[in-house]
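Researcher: Going back to the complex we discussed earlier. I've cleaned up the inputs and rechecked each line, so this should be the final set. Can you rerun the prediction on the complete assembly and write out the structure?
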Amino acid sequence: MLAATVARFSPDSPLDGLEVGQRPEPEEREHWSTVDVQAATLNHHDLWSLRGVGLRAEQLPMVLGTDAAGVAPDGSRVLVHGVIGADGHGVGPRERRTLLSEKYPGTLAERVAVPTANLVPLPDELSFAEAACLPTAWLTAYRMLFGAGGLTPGDRVLVQGAGGGVATAAIALGAAAGLEVVATSRSAAKRARALELGAAHAVEPGERLPARVDAVVESVGQATWAHSVRSVRPGGTIVVCGATSGDAPPAELTRVFFNEIRVQGVTMGSRDDLAALVRFCARTGLRPVIDSEVPLARVADGLARLEAGEQTGKIVVLP
Ligand SMILES: NC(=O)c1ccc[n+]([C@@H]2O[C@H](COP(=O)([O-])OP(=O)(O)OC[C@H]3O[C@@H](n4cnc5c(N)ncnc54)[C@H](OP(=O)(O)O)[C@@H]3O)[C@@H](O)[C@H]2O)c1
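Model: Rerun complete. Updated structure for the full complex:
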């Protein structure tokens, strides 16, 4: 089958380590199912993998990709929950939590094998491409807002780096749930897009906000951390899921302790969170923001766009 793999690590120029070519079919395992992938999406995680973060050389070549929607062996439409081992699904109680493409081959392929319990039924309202946006970026944003962030309708939230996959998801989900969303972006075009997605305000990174927020959705890291600490209200929460621009910002400890700010990490979400997110989208009519679609054979173009930070929303890959 055709698949996109990390062939070698390339820390400075991730695309140099990418290979798209023929790979063996997924291994059959008890309590696992092989899904015919109809759509996958790209995440920053794929670039980290190509740089060598989270993988060992002896695991190469590793099929990339954490998100997919497709057809299960029984012919039903399904969404793949990409977290393996969190609940012991099909892999035994001692399985360490990993994401697809970290230990087991990922979704940038014609077929992917996952524990059968990781399959979430896909309602007809959502297309395969829309659904494939949900399992990583949208699931993480969902948990950041409504789980770790503890936000309820009417609350204020700051979303840093408005163009990102997690960020666009947080803006759209937050607005649909009645939050007052403030977004930052380096790009005027992306700020305009954030307003179209439902943000109440869109400002440049570092700009003073109209009012302090109850929580911050932080996925940019070093470049925006100080602004996040300054923008959250006393007793508020900064929810962090990533550090695209680096993870060594000044900690701003004085503000953290003086204002009794909570810093809460999030990694993905549970299968139940994903099923709830699918229901949220199906019932409200909210749909993931799709930046562009590329065929699997040209996945390098999509990864280059992601690396350059040119996208608004998710880049869909069609096998
Ligand atoms: N913990 C988890 O489960 C989890 C899940 C998903 C993602 N993540 C992590 O979260 C991060 C974002 O993921 P993603 O897939 O949403 O990535 P993405 O689509 O590549 O978005 C990154 C965004 O960060 C902003 N940005 C990048 N460099 C910046 C800089 N130097 N200064 C200011 N802003 C900058 C950009 O926004 P603007 O261009 O609009 O400024 C960019 O669109 C990644 O590090 C990823 O690994 C973690």
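Model: Worth noting: The chain has a mean pLDDT of 95.
Researcher: Good, that matches what I expected from the previous run.
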